[in-house]
Here is the input.
Amino acid sequence: MTKKLSAKCAKCPTVVCVPRITADETPTLDKAPAFCPMKVMPDVIENAVAEYDKPDVKEFARLASLQEFECYEHTPDGMRTKNPRILELFQFAQKCGYKKLGLAFCAGLANEASILTDMLENKGFEVVSVRCKVGATPKERIGIKAEEKIRGADSWESMCSPIVQAEILNSEKVDLAIMLGLCIGHDTLFIKYCRVPMTVLAVKDRVTGHNPLAALYLSSSYYARLMSKTK
Here is the structure.
């Protein structure tokens, strides 16, 4: 039996999905590797692209693409980027006509959440914010043992509750939810239970100042251990 090939775009040597051709030409798959999803699962792609025919989806995608376009500018020295992600957040929310924004943040980024809230309110948005510890539910509720508490066995520790964060923003009927610094796993639960459009402003990385890509950029030097094969 022939093993089904899976998409491996991260290993692609040709990148035929970004062809250097003119607008009146048609892309070809002649140089696409065998694992290219455009070869392996064309039906999945066709059915997914059909979703863009829905008027609301098409308009949202159009605005997202327009936002991408506006992040670049052509200068005498060539093309360059100009907008940080926070400015993009303001601009995209305005493009979509959003008025009420929800902010789900980690307690460790409370200061950043406060600054962001001020920025958003200064731009005219209403902001609903929810801290990860909302509910003050003890960690014992999910089976955490005394010796597994960060502050020590005798301390009360409220569990992070991303499901509560999501449900509060759902009930508030925010136009857009913004996730700021939730831990791995907690962010997964938030995404699973959030029923409104959402975006991620930043993710948690306690070591790199919440810039996880730093470890990738340093994988040939300070973080070389990340490239070692597991035995």
About this structure: The chain has two domains: 31-82, 85-231. The two ends are 29 Å apart (CA to CA). The CA atoms of residues 14 and 184 lie 33 Å apart. Residues 31-82 form one domain.
